[in-house]
Amino acid sequence: MDERRTQGLSKAQVWSMDLIIAVLIFLLAAGIFYYFTGHEAQRDQTKLKIEAQVMADKLASTAELGLVNGSSVDEQKLQQTVGSSVDDYAALKQKLGLQDDFCVVMLDSDGNLILLGNGTVNRAGFGNGNLTINMTGINQAVPCGGTYSS
């Protein structure tokens, strides 16, 4: 009878050891997967922040694409940029030196969306029309560059 107990115990120990090894392999695989997916997302977010800063610097400068004249927005350059976004988004994206899609919106001091335009046809920002603007206070997703007539 002692012999049976010893045999049963050794089988249980082997099974237990196999289970422990399998769990360790699973946890290692899950950890590697989590590391690479989380690390990639963080790298993408950093890349987007850098591109956003580059675009903001170019649009805030007084150079060709700059929308600022002193401490105010140059309305003529703004209209040209909005128009070039509508006419040739890819060319504007290239001029800004961007790889990813973008949508530029302007907000007032209260965080309300400022429509850009000439008074007759106004647009909700400018950039890729496939992107949407989601803001608090607006109950629907607004397409980037969507037109609104007054």
Question: What is the strand and helix layout of this fold?
Answer:
Blueprint: H1 2-60, E1 68-69, E2 72-73, H2 75-87, H3 89-95, E3 103-104, E4 106-107, E5 113-114, E6 116-117, E7 121-123, E8 126-127, E9 132-133, E10 142-143, E11 147-149
Antiparallel strand pairs: 1-2, 3-8, 4-5, 6-7, 7-11, 9-10
Helix pairs in contact: 2-3
Report on this model:
This protein has helices at 2-60, 75-87, 89-95, and strands at residues 68-69, 72-73, 103-104, 106-107, 113-114, 116-117, 121-123, 126-127, 132-133, 142-143, 147-149. It is α+β, with helices and mostly antiparallel strands and 150 residues long. It has a domain at 1-52. A three-stranded antiparallel beta sheet has the order 6-7-11, with helices on one face. Strands 1-2 form a two-stranded antiparallel ribbon. A two-stranded antiparallel ribbon has the order 3-8. A hairpin with a 2-residue loop joins β1 (68-69) and β2 (72-73). α2 (75-87) packs across α3 (89-95). The longest helix has 59 residues, at 2-60. It is elongated, with a radius of gyration of 28 Å.
